[in-house]
Task: structure prediction
Amino acid sequence: MGFETATPIQEQAIPALMQGRDMLAVAQTGTGKTAAFLLPIINRLTVDPIDGVDTIILEPTRELAIQVDRQLEGFSYFTPVSSIAVYGGRDGHSMTMEMRALKKGADIIVATPGRLLAHLQMGYVKLDSLRHLVLDEADRMLDMGFIADIMTIVNKLPRERQNLLFSATMPKEIRTFSKSILKNPVEVSIAISKPPDSILQGVYMVSERDKNRLIEHVLRNQKEKVQRVLVFAGTKRVVRELTAHLRNKGFEASAISSDLDQKEREETLMKFKGKSVPILVATDVLSRGIDIKGIEVVINYDVPNDPEDYVHRIGRTARADATGVALTLVSRDGMRKFSRIEHMIGMEVKRIPLPEGIEGPSSGRGGGRGRSGGGGRGRGRGRSQGGGGRNNRNNRWRGNNSSNRNSGNRNRGRGRDSGGRQNRPAPKDG
Result:
């Protein structure tokens, strides 16, 4: 698997889980927490197998359910452990396929709460032998209103079981919720609401109307240096409009949001992972948990309302001991929100001078523009690079405006892909 040194969450969690203790763990994405709970479960199933479902892992989104299932397949590749991913947003045919798989049986079910509850209410999923319940990204499931569904599921489970709750943050609601599920838990806290030092952060103070032009400038200056850029925007409308703008300017860009059906989302992610599409514009559906290695630059098109979301967004880069760059575009409306972010992370993010012709947040031309005379530092601000290479159609950053919708059908990419992805030193898989 490529493991050499345990991450802090793995070092603290795995011994306690091997002893059968309940656990309340606070760990941000990218710390290796998925391996921290999967490896002890797989080990127990290998040395002490049972007939029937052994483990339920609940995830807040379809993307996370798919990702954890793929990681599970990679970790258990040479073992008899079986798993199934159960998640919503697909057609009735997929529901039928899930039903058949659940009736046949699997050791581990990775599921979203609503979809699993729908199956449980039909009565064909037997959980009499269940030994483990994992609630992953519990704070996000609380935010998304899943607590009632989770408690309904919990009430259908055997009383004697090991319960694991992982959360990126620890609001009082999560601690109160945990008391209704966990029994004398071991508490592990790794999370710090600060980005790792391996992320080089920068901020552009820019007028709202010039954001698109600034994005173009940054992408042109980065196109020969990086292969994957993830751009976050706060709404589906902005994601659609920004993606269309970038395509019109010749960039190869795709969008991902809840506007896409599940098949389209999976295909879009596969293309981004495979580097056939180097720019992905997304809502916060990708800000937590999704582990795509090799994202060199994250751009916040707007400032998230919650400072924690900023940490999660930029945490998509600098994964697994890599380094990365996080750039944020702050207009007048986002100044106060970004000030709160800086307060939370305990640092003032470096202001990057704007390129010539781009307005700052003030109404006058040139507000905040090039005050220190530029100075490249490889962060997309050197004026001499301007639009260099703009007409190089062979460059992967610039495409033919082709859409990514006609790529043909793909499966979920399970199995061999999952196994191969683990051959990294010290995986940090969110």
